[in-house]
Amino acid sequence: MPEPPAAPVPFELALDELDGILRELEDGTTTLEDALSRYERGVSLLRQCYGQLRDAEQKVKLLAGLNEEGGADLRPFDHVASIETAKAAVRKPAPPPARDPGITE
């Protein structure tokens, strides 16, 4: 039975772990096999971080209204119904004021 995929490590924790792996590899005190294992873990974390950054960038583009080229995403928005409603309200004559039976003109 295959193992279920591991839950992604939060971005900040992945960066901290990557920093620790880098320090271990730079120290040069690990064995070759351990260094390869740590390097493999580092590559996995790095790919995960890039994926999370790409997802975050896409969300920012959506929120900021930018297209793929970084320009403003100028799409017409559906406002016809609200304008037509507003025009109809303006055109609609106001009801005549109630007359006071005691006032004559």
TrEMBL record:
Keywords attached to this entry: Cytoplasm, Exonuclease, Hydrolase, Nuclease
Superkingdom to which the source organism belongs: Bacteria
Enzyme class, first EC level, given as a word: hydrolase
Catalytic activity: Exonucleolytic cleavage in either 5'- to 3'- or 3'- to 5'-direction to yield nucleoside 5'-phosphates
GO molecular function per UniProt: exodeoxyribonuclease VII activity
Localisation per UniProt entry: Cytoplasm
Enzyme Commission number, as recorded: 3.1.11.6
GO cellular component: cytosol; exodeoxyribonuclease VII complex
GO biological process: one example: DNA catabolic process
HAMAP family (UniProt xref): Exonuc_7_S
Assembly behavior: Heterooligomer composed of large and small subunits.
Sequence similarity: Belongs to the XseB family.
Summary of the function given for this chain in its UniProt record: Bidirectionally degrades single-stranded DNA into large acid-insoluble oligonucleotides, which are then degraded further into small acid-soluble oligonucleotides.
Matching PANTHER family: EXODEOXYRIBONUCLEASE 7 SMALL SUBUNIT
Protein name, per record: Exodeoxyribonuclease 7 small subunit
Name of encoding gene: xseB
